[in-house]
Amino acid sequence: MRAVVAEGPGGPGTLRVRRVPDPWPGPGQVRISVACANVAFLDTALRAGRPFGPRMAFPYVPGNGVGGVVDKVGAGVDPGWRGARVVSVTGGSGGYAEFALARDTDLHRVPGGLTMAEATALLGDGRTALGVHRSGKARAGETVVVTAAAGGVGGLLVQLAAASGTRVIALAGSEAKLAHAVALGAHAAVEYRGDGWAGRLRDLAPDGLDVVFDGVGASVTAELLPLTRAGGRYVRHGAAGGRLADLDENAVHGKEIVPLFAIGRTPEQLFPLVAEALALASAGRLLVTVGQTFPLAEAAAAHAAIEARATVGKTLLLP
Questions:
Q1: Could you please report the per-residue DSSP string of 260-306?
Q2: Which fold has domain 2-114+288-318?
Q3: Is the Cβ–Cβ distance between 77 and 28 less than 8 Å?
Q4: Of the candidates 2, 31, 24, the residue with the CA atom closest to the CA atom of residue 15
Q5: What is the pLDDT of residues 220-231, one digit of tens each?
Q6: Which label site among 44, 173, 250, 272 has the fewest CB atoms less than 10 Å from its CB?
Q7: 250 has a pLDDT exceeding 70
């Protein structure tokens, strides 16, 4: 089969399409004929060998989420899975390929009303957005900030926060992205590439921010944390800016800092969040934005676009 191989730590150019042996499911596993492979910001960090996230043993096939059809089942697996349209995590790697292995306990059937691309987009982003939103404990009437508000997780957070009755201020890096966030339900939007954006945000929330969902980190954290009121919640769920920021002890005082892992770490904790996200989207209560797709052979271009923060919504590979 064809697969994308990360041959060593470095830039997107280290991703190459290679012919590798077809995988075969072992006990408790299925093989999925991949229609869509999830591309996440974390994939770019792992490929680059950045210090946050697990260290990968090169060479490896990236990708921790796929959608497709089960074409083979291993020993002990219900044969009723064969031919099912599913989405699943893959155990951390192996998704950027024509076939991928998954545990049968990680499989979700694609519900009616969702395309395979939409369901695949919810694998990582849906569970993250639901878990992050709950960990922020935002209440009706509070003011909430969502960074990277036009991204895969950010766009879902905007919708969840707006539906809970909060006043949502979206932060994004271009006018087009701000317009997208407003279309998803944000009440106000601020472009934060450039000078003076923290002052504009302060004008929108003079009493301080109740909840911040920070998926960017880096210098954005240094600006947002002081604007968070005492008793507010600051949820750190990503580092799209390239690094997690060190926290100023004075700015932290009196505020609750919520780490990403508050949403859970284990498959048993994360599985129901994916199921719930799929159900909400199938019922029309969450809009999934698949902003761009790339053929398998252009995985390097997909990584470059994500690192340049030139994407909207979810990015997928189509083997």
A1: GGGG-SSHHHHHHHHHHHHHHHHTTSS---EEEEEEGGGHHHHHHHH
A2: Quinone Oxidoreductase; Chain A, domain 1 (3.90.180)
A3: yes
A4: 2
A5: 888 999 999 999
A6: 250
A7: no
